[in-house]
Amino acid sequence: MSASNITSSGKKKRRAKIRLEFAEKLFYEKVLQDWKESCADRNQSFIIKKALDNLKLFPINVNGYSELRKIKGIGENIATRLDAAWKNACVNHFECDLPTLVQVRTLKKGQFITFLEMLLSLRVDVMCLSFPSKDDDENVVLKTQPVFRTQSDSDVVMNELAASSSNSFHSSLVTTASSSNIAAPTSDDYDPANFDENRLVLIVDGREKKLNVKHEVRTLSVGDYLWVMKLGDSNEKELVLDYVIERKTWDDLKSSIRQTRYMEQKRRLKEAGIRNVILVAEGLQTLDRGLEQALVTTSVDSRFLVHRTMNAQGTAKFLQTVTGHLMQRLKKERMYGPSFSALQDASRKTKMLTVSDCWLRQLTVCPMMSAERAQQVSMLFPTMRSLVEFYRKNSKSAEPVDPATLLQREFPDTIPRSLSAQLSLFFSHAVL
Fold first, then answer.
1. Residues 105 and 151 in one domain
2. What residue stretches are annotated with the ERCC4 domain (predicted)?
3. Shortest CA distance to 338 belongs to which of 212, 190, 143, 188?
4. 358 or 232, greater pLDDT
5. What is the CA radius of gyration of the chain?
6. Which of 68, 102, 119 corresponds to the end of one domain?
7. How far is 327 from 49, CA to CA, in rounded Å?
8. Diameter over CA atoms, the chain
C-alpha cells in the first residue's frame, strides 16, 4: 500500500466517488432499461443493452436527439424514440418543459416504457387499399389510411372494419366462395331475430398458447384466430364470420420470411374467402427495417389490416374488442357464409406432391433456370430419365453435337447458351 493512501494517524484514506445525475439522461436510461426487459427478441435486446451501457458511461447530461446520436450504440431509431418519449412525458405526465430529477425519480420501474408505447399511436399515412364492399368488389377504391394500429386506437380499427363490412357479410364470403372452392350448399344463414338462440365463439388455433380470453381451441387450417356463430338450440351448425387474424411476433415474422412460409401463409389467407384479414404484429417496435417493410407490403399489396400490439396481453385485449364489435353487429345484421367444416376443408394445405412437381423443383435448382423455363423443358422432357436419354443418344450418335448447345437448339427462344451449358454439366455426368 502506498504511503500517499495512509494518513498520519495510520488510517486508510477513503475515496469518495461522485456520480452526477441529470433528469433527462436518467429518464433515457430508465426507458432503455424497461425497453430491454420487455423485449422478446434477443438481437434487439442486445442492441438496446449496448445503447444503455454506453449511455450510462456518458459523463454529462444529454439534451435531445442530436446529443443522443453522439453516443456510441445509439442510432437514428433509438435516438428518435427516446427523444419523442421524453417530449411525450414532459407534455402528458410532468406537464412542464424541464422536469426535475426528483420528478423523474417518482416514476416507478415499468412506467417508463408506457411513454415509448404511446409512440406507436403516431401513425404514418400511406396509400392503402380499402377492403372491398358489396358494391366495389370489381373496382377496389384506393384511400389513405393508417397502416399500423395499436391497442390505443382499437375504436378506429373497429370503425374501419365496420365500414368495410357494411351491408352484411354476404358480399364477401359468398362472392369469394367459388374462388376458394367452398361449395354453395355448405353456406349457412344467420338471422338477427334469432340472436338469443345462437352463440358467438372465438376459435383459437391449437398452436397459440398465450391468450387470456374466453375461447375454444381447435386446429385451424388458416389463420390463428377466427369467429364462428353457433346456430340453433343445438349449436351444431357453425357459421364462419368475416374476420380472420394471423398473429406474428417479430421472431415469428423473421423466421417465416426466411423460410418462405410468409408468402404461402398470405396466399392461403387471401384464398380462404374471408374478406377482413388482420395481421397482428406483437411486440415493441423493431429496429429491423426489413420487417417494417414487410408489414407495409402486407398492408398495401395484400390488403390486410396491420394492427400492432405490445405483448400477449395487448393481443388478448384486441381480440376482446373485436368480439364485442361482432356481438353488436350480430344483434342487427343478417349474415351468410360458409360452415366451419367447409372452410377447414377448402383451406387445408395440399400435401400431395406429384413426380412432375418434383421434376420441376429439381430443374429450378440449376442457376438461371426460372419456373417458366423449367415448365417448358418439362413439357418436352417430362422426367429426368427422358432428359438423360436425350443426352445419351447425342453422345452415341455418329456426329454428336456439343452438349453445351443441345437445349439451346431445342428451345432457341427461351434457353440461352449459358443455361444450356449449365444443364449439360450435370446431365453429361449422369450419362457417364
1. no
2. 201-285
3. 188
4. 358
5. 30
6. 119
7. 44
8. 111
CA distance 408 to 412: 5
Same domain, 371 and 340: no
CA gap 53, 197 in Å, rounded? 60
110: left (phi over 0), alpha (psi -120 to 50) or beta: left
Yes or no: say if 53 and 73 are a contact pair by the CB < 8 Å rule: yes
Bridging pattern class, strands 276-282 and 142-146: unpaired
Same domain, residue pair 308 and 203: yes
C-alpha separations of 260 from 28, 42, 263, 269, 399 in Å: 38, 22, 6, 15, 46
Continuous H helices in 165-288? 170-175, 250-258, 261-271
* Same domain (yes/no): 64, 130: no
The model's pLDDT over 3-60, given as tens digits with 9 standing for 90+, comes to 555 555 566 666 666 667 888 999 999 999 988 888 777 788 888 999 999 998 888 8
Written as nine digits, the cell of 89 is 412525458
Strand duo 187-190 + 335-338: pairing: antiparallel
Helices (H), 143-288: 154-164, 170-175, 250-258, 261-271
Domain assignment present for 105:
yes
Looking up residue 51, the CATH number of its domain turns out to be 1.10.150
Domain boundary (293, 318, 347) is at 347
Query: Are 69 and 86 contained in the same domain?
Result: yes
Per-residue pLDDT tens over the stretch 68-105? 988 888 887 788 888 888 888 888 888 887 888 888 88
Residues, the chain: 432
Number of domains the chain contains: 3
Domain with 107, as residue range(s), is: 23-119
- In the numeric block, the cell 424497461 is attached to 34
* Contact call for residues 27 and 21 (beta carbons, < 8 A): no
